[in-house]
Write a structure and sequence with these properties.
By secondary structure, this protein is mainly alpha-helical. It has one domain: Winged helix-like DNA-binding domain superfamily/Winged helix DNA-binding domain (Arc Repressor Mutant, subunit A, Orthogonal Bundle), CATH 1.10.10. Helices cover 67% and strands 11% of the residues. It contains seven helices and three strands, in the order H-H-H-E-H-H-E-E-H-H. Strands 1-3-2 form a three-stranded antiparallel sheet. Strand 2 and strand 3 form a beta hairpin.
Length: 162
C-alpha cells in the first residue's frame, strides 16, 4: 500500500536518515522524560500540569497570575485551565480571586498549602530532572543542546504569538 503519491513526494523535503533519527530520538526523549517526571510527581498527588501551574504561580509577583496569562504561559485553553484550577482548588493548592481592575478577570493564587507543597516537591523534582536528564549529558553537550534548541523555541514562541 503506497501512502504518499509521487506528486506529493516530489514537493516534500523528506527527512534524511540522520534527520529522521534525530527527530525520533527527540520524540522518544520528550515522551519518556515527561512520563518519568509525571511518575515522580504522583507520590505527591500532582501531575506535570499541576506542577507547571504551581511553578508559574510561585514565581509570579504576589504568587498570583491572571487566568488568561496562566493559560498562555502553560499552553492550555482557558477552559482546560479552568478545570485544572478547579481540581487544584479542591486540593487546597490554589484559589481564585476576582480582578479588581477587570470585573470579568480572575486571578489564580497560590495558597499557603500550595506554597508548602512547592517547597516540598521542588527539590525532589529538580533531583529527578538531574537524574533522568541533566546528569546524563556532559556540560559541553548540554551547552550545544541549549544552543541548538534555542532558535527552535524562539521560532515556536513567535509562531504562537501570531
Amino acid at each position: 500500500m503506497e501512502t504518499v503519491t509521487a506528486e506529493a513526494e516530489g514537493a516534500t523535503a523528506w527527512l534524511t536518515e540522520d534527520e529522521q533519527h534525530a527527530w525520533r530520538i527527540h520524540l522518544d526523549v520528550s515522551r519518556l522524560l515527561m512520563y518519568q517526571l509525571e511518575r515522580d510527581l504522583q507520590s505527591f498527588g500532582l501531575t506535570n500540569n499541576d506542577y507547571e501551574i504551581l511553578v508559574n504561580l510561585s514565581e509570579a509577583e504576589e504568587r498570583r497570575l491572571r487566568m488568561s496569562d496562566l493559560a498562555r504561559s502553560t499552553l492550555q485553553s482557558k477552559s482546560r485551565l479552568s478545570h485544572q484550577i478547579t481540581r487544584m482548588e479542591s486540593a487546597g493548592l490554589v484559589r481564585r480571586e476576582n480582578c479588581e481592575s477587570d470585573r470579568r478577570g480572575l486571578y489564580a493564587v497560590l495558597t499557603d498549602q500550595g506554597w508548602a507543597t512547592m517547597r516540598q516537591v521542588a527539590p525532589r523534582h529538580v533531583a529527578a530532572v538531574r537524574a533522568h536528564f541533566i546528569d546524563l549529558i556532559t556540560p559541553e553537550d548540554l551547552a550545544t543542546y541549549r544552543r541548538a534548541l534555542a532558535p527552535v523555541a524562539d521560532h515556536l514562541r513567535a509562531v504562537r504569538e501570531k
